[in-house]
Amino acid sequence: MLNLKTFDIADVVLLNPQSHCDARGQFVETFRQAWLEQVLQKPVNFCQHNLVQSTRGVLRGLHFQRPPYAQAKLIQVIEGEIFDVMVDLRRSSSTFGKTLNLHLSAKTPQTLYIPAGLAHGYLVLSEQATVLYQVDQYYQPDADAGLAYNDPDLKIAWPKLSCKYHVSPKDQQQPSWKALIRDDKLFL
Ligand SMILES: Cc1cn([C@H]2C[C@H](O)[C@@H](COP(=O)(O)OP(=O)(O)O[C@H]3O[C@@H](C)C(=O)[C@@H](O)[C@H]3O)O2)c(=O)[nH]c1=O
After folding, report:
1. Is residue 112 part of a domain?
2. 103 is catalytic
């Protein structure tokens, strides 16, 4: 049986699938297309699968692809724990500019669906983390875009760690929210 959670930001869905435990270990159906299609009332089709490994303090994001290559994402943490962040960039949305954060851990098999039009990022809280994610549009380097993870306007309460955050040179120079919203082409 599937248990799912929705949030203030429309179309973000956290799937909490059932674990089947026995003497050998556990078996979990982490995703069924029909589950999401029933909630979203539209077809989903993931064409690219990614595997990302990181160590504690690595902060990736906040990222999105500009239209017409905006990507919906399906996130699973298969090792370790992350603090996952989403920002609604859809001008038509009642939660435009709103952020949402969740702790995701491999200890609890969960699958997070992030609709197209949201910026996404995460901080690794465990010694190592492995994130598997699927996207419904191919990676388009020319459409790759970002938003400063530490923009005070976003008020994201990133957890404090005993080590420094490890942020890529690209992500240290992402634009602020105010700079981003001046550019109409960035949004759905
Ligand atoms: C995202 C991506 C990157 N790459 C390459 C480009 C680069 O050489 C290397 C690392 O890219 P990045 O620094 O952008 O990787 P990363 O910072 O992990 O980017 C990811 O961050 C998280 C938060 C997301 O939500 C993803 O959509 C994606 O943007 O991998 C691909 O080949 N395919 C892809 O789909």
Report:
1. yes
2. no
pLDDT per position as a tens digit, 139-183: 999 999 999 999 999 999 999 999 999 999 999 999 999 999 887
Q: Which of 47, 49, 50 to mutate for ligand 1's pocket (most ligand atoms within 8 Å of CB)?
A: 50
Closest Cα to atom 23 of ligand 1: 121
52 lines ligand 1 (CB under 6 A): yes
Residue 10 lies in a domain: no
Q: Is residue 162 part of a domain?
A: yes
* Domain carrying residue 126: 46-186
CB atoms < 10 A from the CB of 31, how many? 17
**Terminal Cα distance for the chain, rounded:** 34
Integer Cα distance of 178 and 148 in angstroms:
10
| pTM of full prediction above 0.90 | yes
Q: Is 52 left (phi over 0), alpha (psi -120 to 50) or beta?
A: beta
Contacts of 68 (CB under 8 A, 6+ apart): none
Least Cα distance to 116 among 137, 85, 102 occurs for 137
Mean of all residue pLDDT scores within the chain = 95
**Residues 72, 10 contacting (CB under 8 angstroms):** no
Instruction: Confirm whether 144 is domain-assigned.
Output: yes
What is the interface pTM, i.e. ipTM, of the complex?
0.98
Is 120 noted as a catalytic residue in this protein?
A: no
Please count the structural domains in the chain. Answer: 1
